[in-house]
Amino acid sequence: MINIYCLKWGDKYDRKFVTQLKTNIEKHFTKNHKFHCLTDKPEKDYDIPLVRQFPDVWNKLQFLNFIGDSLYFDLDIDIHDNIDFLAEDFLNFTVIDSRKWKDNKEDLKFKITSNTFVNTSIMRWSLSQDIYQKFANNHDTFIRLYKGIDRFIYNENISYKYFKTDKIVSWQDKNYIKKAITLYNGRYKN
User: Fold this and answer.
1) How far, in Å, CA of 180 to CA of 42, rounded?
2) Which end of the chain has fewer CB atoms surrounding its CB within 10 Å, N or C?
C-alpha cells in the first residue's frame, strides 16, 4: 500500500484543490494506495490534523516523519496521464530535478541566494525521518536562512535522488508541452 499525501494549510488553496488532486490520482494512478491530507482544518475522513505548525511551506517537511512507501503532491499541479512511474523506487528520498527550468545556473546570484536545483512539488520516500529531524532540531535557523524547503534540501547536504522521467514539466518551461504532470509552483493557472 502506497500512502499519498498532500498539504492544505492556510487559505492560499481552497478545498477544491484537494478534491481535484484526489480525483486525478484515482484516475491516473493504478497502484494500491491510500490518500491523506495533512491540514489545519480537518473536514474529511482522509484528513490528518496538523499538530505542529511551521510557517508557510515548511509544513511539508513533516511528511518525511511518516514511514512507509509514500508520495507527496503539492496542490497546484495538474495530472493529465498515468503516473505509475512515480512508484518505482521508494528506497531513496526522491525529488524533481529543476535544472532545465533555471536560467541562471550556478552564477554568483544563484549561489548568494542559496538557490536550488531541487523541486519538492512531488516527493517520494519510505524512510526519511532523518531529514525531518535535522530540520526540526534547528528549524528557527533554517527558516531564517533559506527561502523554502527546496533550498534547505539542496544546500544542507541532504541525500536525495531525482525522478528519472521527462513526464513532469513546469509551466515555466520554454518548450512547454503537456506531459503527465504539470507543476505550477505557486502560480496556479486555470
Assistant:
1) 29
2) C
